[in-house]
Each structure stands twice: as C-alpha cells, then as structure tokens.
C-alpha cells in the first residue's frame, strides 16, 4: 500500500490575501523609489484615453497657476497637488476625472466650477466627463484661492 503525501489545502481567501499582500508590497516598493511626478506621468500614459488627456491638462493648469506646487502620490495611486497644505486630488474613474478640493467649501466659486460633493461642509469637487471643457482662467483662479487659503491656515 502506497502512502500518499498529505497536503494541506490553503483556503481560497488566505491564498487571495497572500497574493494581494505580495502585489501591494511590490507596488509599494516601486512607488517608494519613483518620484510622484513620474508616477503621475505613468498614470496619464496608462489611462491612454480622454481621462489621461484630461488629467494631464488640469495638471498643466495647476502648475501654471502655482509654479511652487508640490506633486504627491497618495492613497495607493491618487495624484495630489499641495502648497502649504493639500490643494486638490486628481482621481480617475471609468466615466469621470474628479478634482476634489479638500477645503473647497471655503472657496469662492463665482464661475461655478464645483459641480460635485456640494452637500459637504468641507470638500467640493469638479467632475469632468468625456468632452467637457474647463474654464481655464476660472480654474487657475480657484487653484490660487486654494493656495492662499492654505497659506492663511498655516499661520
């Protein structure tokens, strides 16, 4: 009679968790060695569609409005722009590029760029869909206002 080797089956959930942990560890190692600007460049390229073009365009406008802006990469893959505090995030979803201003409720928006997260007491967002155009001057004014608010809050 042959003795069969005893194998312990790894439950699917455990195997999946281990694989996910390895993937996160690998991604973390990669992101720690790469600059946030390069990671944002990679995201724009990876998207390769209207969302990448839109993200790239608003990124350019942010840099024009605030040449001192610092680009960051947070929350496992969200571009963030800061100057004396967070200005906004640039999240990409299947049907929208969402620019969330963390202190948006405190900003004047006479051009009514904010069109999302309007019910919150702190944040406001601009949702850009395929084909949408943004008022560049109004957007730059909003960026400058967010920076000014950060500077007064930092004191």
Q: Give a quick account of the main beta sheet: strands, pairing sense, barrel closure.
A: 5 strands, antiparallel
Total count of strands = 5
Shape: globular
What proportion of the residues is helical, as a percent range? 40-55%
**Straight-line distance between termini:** 81 Å
Mean pLDDT: 83
> What is the domain tally?
1
Instruction: List the helices and strands in order.
Output: HHHEEEEEH
Strand order of the largest sheet: 1-2-3-4-5
The top level CATH class name = Alpha Beta
Beta-strand residue percentage = 15-25%
Low-pLDDT parts are: 2-31
CATH topology: Aspartate Aminotransferase, domain 1
Supply the number of helical segments.
Answer: 4
Overall description:
The protein has 155 residues and is α+β, with helices and mostly antiparallel strands. Helix content is 45%, strand content 17%. The chain has a 5-stranded antiparallel sheet with strand order 1-2-3-4-5. α2 packs antiparallel against α3 and α3 (50-65) packs across α4 (136-154). The termini are far apart. 23% of the residues are buried. Residues 2-31 have low confidence and may be disordered.
Which terms summarize this structure?
single chain; 155 residues; alpha+beta; Aspartate Aminotransferase, domain 1; 5-stranded antiparallel β-sheet; 5 strands; 17% strand; disordered N terminus
How are the secondary structure elements laid out?
Elements: H1 12-33, H2 36-47, H3 50-65, E1 70-74, E2 78-82, E3 86-92, E4 97-101, E5 124-128, H4 136-154
Helix pairs in contact: 2-3, 3-4
């Amino acid at each position: 009679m042959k003795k069969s080797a005893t194998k312990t089956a790894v439950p699917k959930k455990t195997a999946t968790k281990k694989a996910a942990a390895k993937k996160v560890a690998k991604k973390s190692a990669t992101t720690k060695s790469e600059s946030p600007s390069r990671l944002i460049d990679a995201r724009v390229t990876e998207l390769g569609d209207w969302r990448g073009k839109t993200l790239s365009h608003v990124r350019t406008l942010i840099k024009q409005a605030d040449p001192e802006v610092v680009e960051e990469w947070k929350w496992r893959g969200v571009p963030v722009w800061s100057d004396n505090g967070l200005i906004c995030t640039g999240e990409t979803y299947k049907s929208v590029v969402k620019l969330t201003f963390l202190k948006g409720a405190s900003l004047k928006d006479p051009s009514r760029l904010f069109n999302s997260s309007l019910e919150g007491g702190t944040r406001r967002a601009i949702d850009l869909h395929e084909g949408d155009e943004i008022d560049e001057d109004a957007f730059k004014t909003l960026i400058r206002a967010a920076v000014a608010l950060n500077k007064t809050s930092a004191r």
